[in-house]
Design brief:
alpha+beta, 4-stranded antiparallel sheet, 3-stranded antiparallel sheet, 7 strands, 37% helix
Length: 161
């Protein structure tokens, strides 16, 4: 084979693979930074994040000993870490808000919001909602549905134990 073909082929492969490697590295660095913010906020409340996961533009963590849940959506204007004491919650469910567009003859529904809903033990308290996906902010889902279902299950296991 001609060496120029090998060189050109190698350059094309490198140009194809390099962006994927850089994007992956960038996501891992962001996840590490978000995890540090989450653990810092947890330590400020004398909690320790023992379980965490990042998905898309959010990160969620849990202190399984103290039964506390932490949530960070860094892209919000005031990237405030939210937390819930799971001892005050009776149920956690995935919520979906659908929106309808179109005219009379052809209407289509799509997912507008997706998140977790926390029902408190005390009836006088209002339920909390953490939005994991909003179609106004994100163009498409990137694993948020599976993330929400997984964490709803983990949270329910902690509430029951």
């Amino acid at each position: 084979m001609d060496t120029s073909v090998i060189v050109i082929g190698s350059i094309l492969v490198a140009l194809t693979v390099l962006p994927m490697v850089l994007i992956s590295r960038s996501r891992k660095q962001k996840a590490r930074l978000y995890y540090q913010k989450l653990t810092t906020a947890a330590l400020a409340q004398n909690r320790e994040v023992s379980l965490y996961e990042a998905s898309g533009r959010i990160i969620m963590g849990m202190d399984q000993k103290a039964k506390a849940l932490f949530y960070l959506k860094p892209e919000q204007e005031a990237a405030e870490i939210q937390h819930i004491d799971l001892n005050t919650i009776t149920d956690c469910k995935v919520f979906r808000v659908t929106r309808t567009v179109g005219e009379n003859g052809s209407q289509q529904s799509y997912l507008g919001q997706l998140g977790l809903r926390f029902i408190p033990r005390k009836k006088a308290e209002q339920e909390s909602r953490w939005v994991l996906y909003d179609s106004d902010e994100d163009m498409q889902l990137s694993g948020e549905l599976q993330f929400a279902e997984k964490w709803a299950g983990l949270i329910m296991n902690e509430i029951k134990s």
